[in-house]
User: Which sequence fits this backbone?
Protein backbone atom coordinates (compact mmCIF):
# COMPACT_ATOMS: atom_id res chain seq x y z
CA UNK A 1 0.00 0.00 0.00
CA UNK A 2 2.86 2.36 0.83
CA UNK A 3 4.49 1.67 -2.56
CA UNK A 4 1.18 2.21 -4.36
CA UNK A 5 0.63 5.50 -2.53
CA UNK A 6 4.09 6.64 -3.65
CA UNK A 7 3.35 5.76 -7.27
CA UNK A 8 0.04 7.64 -7.13
CA UNK A 9 1.72 10.65 -5.55
CA UNK A 10 4.37 10.74 -8.30
CA UNK A 11 1.69 10.44 -10.97
CA UNK A 12 -0.27 13.31 -9.44
CA UNK A 13 2.85 15.47 -9.24
CA UNK A 14 3.70 14.72 -12.87
CA UNK A 15 0.17 15.64 -13.90
CA UNK A 16 0.38 18.87 -11.91
CA UNK A 17 3.64 19.79 -13.61
CA UNK A 18 2.13 18.99 -17.00
CA UNK A 19 -0.89 21.19 -16.36
CA UNK A 20 1.41 23.99 -15.20
CA UNK A 21 3.52 23.58 -18.35
CA UNK A 22 0.38 23.84 -20.48
CA UNK A 23 -0.77 26.94 -18.62
CA UNK A 24 2.60 28.65 -19.06
CA UNK A 25 2.75 27.75 -22.76
CA UNK A 26 -0.79 29.07 -23.34
CA UNK A 27 -0.07 32.21 -21.34
CA UNK A 28 3.11 32.86 -23.30
CA UNK A 29 1.52 32.39 -26.73
CA UNK A 30 -1.50 34.50 -25.74
CA UNK A 31 0.87 37.27 -24.63
CA UNK A 32 2.90 37.07 -27.84
CA UNK A 33 -0.20 37.26 -30.04
CA UNK A 34 -0.64 40.86 -28.90
CA UNK A 35 2.42 42.02 -30.88
CA UNK A 36 1.32 40.93 -34.40
CA UNK A 37 -2.25 41.95 -33.52
CA UNK A 38 -0.99 45.48 -32.86
CA UNK A 39 0.45 45.53 -36.42
CA UNK A 40 -2.89 44.43 -37.89
CA UNK A 41 -4.80 47.00 -35.83
CA UNK A 42 -2.32 49.80 -36.53
CA UNK A 43 -1.98 49.32 -40.29
CA UNK A 44 -5.73 48.77 -40.70
CA UNK A 45 -6.32 52.07 -38.93
CA UNK A 46 -3.83 53.82 -41.21
CA UNK A 47 -5.50 52.45 -44.35
CA UNK A 48 -8.90 53.50 -43.04
CA UNK A 49 -7.91 57.15 -42.49
CA UNK A 50 -10.29 59.22 -44.65
CA UNK A 51 -8.20 62.42 -44.61
CA UNK A 52 -5.02 61.01 -46.14
CA UNK A 53 -4.43 59.69 -49.66
CA UNK A 54 -1.90 56.89 -49.35
CA UNK A 55 0.21 56.13 -52.42
CA UNK A 56 -0.07 52.75 -54.09
CA UNK A 57 3.43 51.94 -52.83
CA UNK A 58 2.41 52.74 -49.25
CA UNK A 59 -0.78 50.70 -49.57
CA UNK A 60 1.23 47.77 -50.92
CA UNK A 61 3.64 48.01 -47.99
CA UNK A 62 0.78 48.10 -45.49
CA UNK A 63 -0.90 45.08 -47.08
CA UNK A 64 2.39 43.15 -47.05
CA UNK A 65 2.75 43.85 -43.34
CA UNK A 66 -0.84 42.75 -42.72
CA UNK A 67 -0.32 39.50 -44.60
CA UNK A 68 3.00 38.74 -42.88
CA UNK A 69 1.66 39.38 -39.39
CA UNK A 70 -1.53 37.46 -40.11
CA UNK A 71 0.59 34.46 -41.13
CA UNK A 72 2.68 34.87 -37.97
CA UNK A 73 -0.48 34.93 -35.88
CA UNK A 74 -1.49 31.69 -37.58
CA UNK A 75 1.82 30.13 -36.53
CA UNK A 76 1.33 31.26 -32.94
CA UNK A 77 -2.19 29.85 -32.90
CA UNK A 78 -0.69 26.58 -34.14
CA UNK A 79 1.66 26.71 -31.14
CA UNK A 80 -1.34 27.36 -28.92
CA UNK A 81 -3.16 24.32 -30.29
CA UNK A 82 -0.03 22.22 -29.80
CA UNK A 83 -0.15 22.95 -26.07
CA UNK A 84 -3.33 20.89 -25.77
CA UNK A 85 -1.46 17.82 -27.05
CA UNK A 86 1.43 17.95 -24.58
CA UNK A 87 1.95 14.53 -23.04
CA UNK A 88 4.93 15.27 -20.81
CA UNK A 89 6.70 18.30 -19.36
CA UNK A 90 9.78 17.76 -21.55
CA UNK A 91 7.67 18.59 -24.61
CA UNK A 92 6.97 22.05 -23.25
CA UNK A 93 9.65 23.75 -25.36
CA UNK A 94 9.87 21.86 -28.68
CA UNK A 95 12.91 22.95 -30.69
CA UNK A 96 13.42 23.14 -34.45
CA UNK A 97 17.07 24.22 -34.75
CA UNK A 98 18.76 25.70 -37.81
CA UNK A 99 21.96 27.64 -38.49
CA UNK A 100 21.56 31.34 -39.34
CA UNK A 101 23.54 34.62 -39.19
CA UNK A 102 23.00 36.47 -35.91
CA UNK A 103 23.33 39.96 -37.45
CA UNK A 104 20.74 39.32 -40.16
CA UNK A 105 18.39 37.82 -37.57
CA UNK A 106 18.67 40.68 -35.07
CA UNK A 107 18.40 43.21 -37.89
CA UNK A 108 15.14 41.59 -39.04
CA UNK A 109 13.57 41.53 -35.56
CA UNK A 110 14.61 45.13 -34.87
CA UNK A 111 13.23 46.32 -38.21
CA UNK A 112 9.97 44.44 -37.64
CA UNK A 113 9.42 46.07 -34.25
CA UNK A 114 10.46 49.51 -35.56
CA UNK A 115 7.83 49.12 -38.32
CA UNK A 116 5.10 48.44 -35.79
CA UNK A 117 2.73 51.45 -35.86
CA UNK A 118 3.05 51.64 -32.07
CA UNK A 119 6.81 52.15 -32.47
CA UNK A 120 6.85 54.85 -35.19
CA UNK A 121 7.80 57.59 -32.69
CA UNK A 122 10.65 55.63 -31.08
CA UNK A 123 14.28 55.88 -32.18
CA UNK A 124 15.93 52.55 -33.02
CA UNK A 125 19.63 52.09 -33.68
CA UNK A 126 21.49 48.87 -34.55
CA UNK A 127 25.25 48.34 -34.42
CA UNK A 128 27.57 45.35 -34.61
CA UNK A 129 31.29 44.73 -34.52
CA UNK A 130 32.92 43.14 -37.56
CA UNK A 131 33.22 39.67 -36.03
CA UNK A 132 29.60 39.70 -34.96
CA UNK A 133 28.44 40.37 -38.51
CA UNK A 134 29.96 37.05 -39.53
CA UNK A 135 28.80 35.05 -36.48
CA UNK A 136 26.30 32.22 -36.79
CA UNK A 137 23.75 30.87 -34.34
CA UNK A 138 22.33 27.36 -34.15
CA UNK A 139 18.85 27.47 -32.66
CA UNK A 140 15.14 27.64 -33.16
CA UNK A 141 14.75 30.86 -35.12
CA UNK A 142 11.04 31.18 -34.36
CA UNK A 143 11.50 30.84 -30.59
CA UNK A 144 14.39 33.29 -30.55
CA UNK A 145 12.34 35.71 -32.66
CA UNK A 146 9.59 35.59 -30.04
CA UNK A 147 12.16 36.21 -27.30
CA UNK A 148 13.71 39.27 -28.95
CA UNK A 149 10.34 40.63 -30.10
CA UNK A 150 9.19 40.52 -26.47
CA UNK A 151 12.26 42.39 -25.25
CA UNK A 152 12.07 45.07 -27.94
CA UNK A 153 8.31 45.55 -27.59
CA UNK A 154 8.80 45.97 -23.84
CA UNK A 155 11.10 48.89 -24.63
CA UNK A 156 8.30 50.43 -26.69
CA UNK A 157 5.26 49.65 -24.57
CA UNK A 158 6.72 50.72 -21.23
CA UNK A 159 8.52 53.88 -22.30
CA UNK A 160 7.47 57.30 -23.56
CA UNK A 161 7.55 58.31 -27.22
CA UNK A 162 10.94 59.26 -28.67
CA UNK A 163 12.76 56.89 -26.32
CA UNK A 164 16.09 55.78 -27.80
CA UNK A 165 16.46 52.01 -28.19
CA UNK A 166 19.94 50.81 -29.11
CA UNK A 167 20.65 47.22 -30.11
CA UNK A 168 24.32 46.18 -30.24
CA UNK A 169 25.83 42.84 -31.28
CA UNK A 170 29.31 41.84 -30.16
CA UNK A 171 31.31 38.65 -30.63
CA UNK A 172 32.57 38.14 -27.09
CA UNK A 173 34.71 35.14 -28.00
CA UNK A 174 34.90 32.33 -30.52
CA UNK A 175 32.16 30.58 -28.55
CA UNK A 176 29.73 33.35 -27.60
CA UNK A 177 27.92 36.33 -29.04
CA UNK A 178 26.29 39.03 -26.91
CA UNK A 179 23.28 41.10 -27.93
CA UNK A 180 22.64 44.19 -25.83
CA UNK A 181 19.32 46.06 -25.85
CA UNK A 182 19.60 49.42 -24.11
CA UNK A 183 17.02 52.18 -23.74
CA UNK A 184 17.01 55.54 -21.98
CA UNK A 185 13.41 55.22 -20.83
CA UNK A 186 11.53 54.94 -17.57
CA UNK A 187 13.22 51.83 -16.18
CA UNK A 188 11.59 48.69 -14.78
CA UNK A 189 9.46 49.17 -11.65
CA UNK A 190 11.29 47.99 -8.54
CA UNK A 191 8.67 45.39 -7.62
CA UNK A 192 9.08 43.74 -11.03
CA UNK A 193 12.86 44.07 -11.24
CA UNK A 194 13.55 42.71 -7.75
CA UNK A 195 11.48 39.59 -8.39
CA UNK A 196 13.10 39.03 -11.77
CA UNK A 197 16.55 39.36 -10.22
CA UNK A 198 16.02 37.31 -7.08
CA UNK A 199 13.63 34.46 -7.83
CA UNK A 200 13.82 31.28 -9.87
CA UNK A 201 12.21 31.20 -13.34
CA UNK A 202 9.31 28.92 -12.36
CA UNK A 203 8.43 31.23 -9.47
CA UNK A 204 8.80 34.27 -11.70
CA UNK A 205 6.08 33.11 -14.03
CA UNK A 206 3.61 32.67 -11.16
CA UNK A 207 4.51 35.92 -9.39
CA UNK A 208 4.65 38.13 -12.48
CA UNK A 209 1.74 36.68 -14.44
CA UNK A 210 -0.23 39.86 -13.86
CA UNK A 211 2.57 42.15 -15.04
CA UNK A 212 2.88 42.60 -18.80
CA UNK A 213 6.43 43.89 -18.37
CA UNK A 214 7.44 40.99 -16.15
CA UNK A 215 5.70 38.35 -18.25
CA UNK A 216 7.46 39.48 -21.43
CA UNK A 217 10.83 39.23 -19.66
CA UNK A 218 9.99 35.78 -18.29
CA UNK A 219 8.93 34.47 -21.72
CA UNK A 220 12.12 35.79 -23.31
CA UNK A 221 14.31 34.44 -20.52
CA UNK A 222 12.76 31.00 -20.79
CA UNK A 223 13.32 30.79 -24.55
CA UNK A 224 16.89 32.07 -24.30
CA UNK A 225 17.72 29.58 -21.55
CA UNK A 226 16.27 26.80 -23.72
CA UNK A 227 19.18 27.64 -26.06
CA UNK A 228 21.70 27.41 -23.20
CA UNK A 229 21.92 31.19 -23.21
CA UNK A 230 21.52 33.79 -20.49
CA UNK A 231 19.52 36.99 -20.06
CA UNK A 232 20.69 39.58 -17.54
CA UNK A 233 18.88 42.79 -16.69
CA UNK A 234 20.08 46.11 -15.30
CA UNK A 235 17.58 48.90 -14.75
CA UNK A 236 17.15 52.10 -12.79
CA UNK A 237 13.96 54.11 -12.55
CA UNK A 238 14.16 57.20 -14.72
CA UNK A 239 17.41 56.14 -16.39
CA UNK A 240 16.45 53.23 -18.59
CA UNK A 241 17.09 49.52 -18.91
CA UNK A 242 19.94 47.42 -20.28
CA UNK A 243 19.49 43.79 -21.30
CA UNK A 244 22.42 41.48 -22.09
CA UNK A 245 21.65 38.28 -24.01
CA UNK A 246 24.52 35.80 -24.29
CA UNK A 247 24.15 33.00 -26.86
CA UNK A 248 26.42 30.24 -28.09
CA UNK A 249 27.97 30.73 -31.51
CA UNK A 250 27.80 27.98 -34.10
CA UNK A 251 31.06 26.51 -35.29
Assistant:
Amino acid sequence: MIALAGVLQKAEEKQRQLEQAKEEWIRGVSHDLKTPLSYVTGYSALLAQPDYAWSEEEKHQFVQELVAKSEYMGELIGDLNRSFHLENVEQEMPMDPEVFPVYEFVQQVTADIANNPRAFTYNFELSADLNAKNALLNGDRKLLYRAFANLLMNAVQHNAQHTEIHVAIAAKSEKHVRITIRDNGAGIPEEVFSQLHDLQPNVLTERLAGSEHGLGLVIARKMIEAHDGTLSVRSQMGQGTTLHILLNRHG
Notes: Residues 2-47 form the longest helix (46 residues). Strands lie at 98-101, 123-128, 136-139, 164-171, 176-183, 230-236, 240-248.
